[in-house]
Amino acid sequence: MRRKRISYFIGFLALLVIFALILFRPFPILFFQDLPFIGFLKRAFYILLLSCGLCLYRILKGPTSADRVITIDMLGVLIVGFCAIMAISTGRSWYIDIAIAWALQSFIATLALAKFLEGKSFDD
Length: 124
Fold this sequence. Notes:
The chain contains four helices and no strands. It has helices at about 1-25, 40-60, 65-90, 95-120. By secondary structure, it is mainly α.
């Protein structure tokens, strides 16, 4: 029991250090520095990153499998958000193509997992 708490504390501390490094030492190469709304994009990026961390926590601690399925679908939506921010900030449109493909894949995977959890086969 004590080892488990220590490992949770070390993991939480590592996540805290990573988030602090990201907040105080942002990735300068990620964004064009001459965009007028660069502050907004950075804040949105960090909010999405924090949301991903909370989703990963819910996947690990979810009391039911339905919670885990919903959280995995939310992670798909967050990845699409990351791709949109990257497309805006870098000016490359192929990030949008990746976002569309990821959204379709996430939707299909969610449907398949929901059918599996219902106990039905894929042909029903």
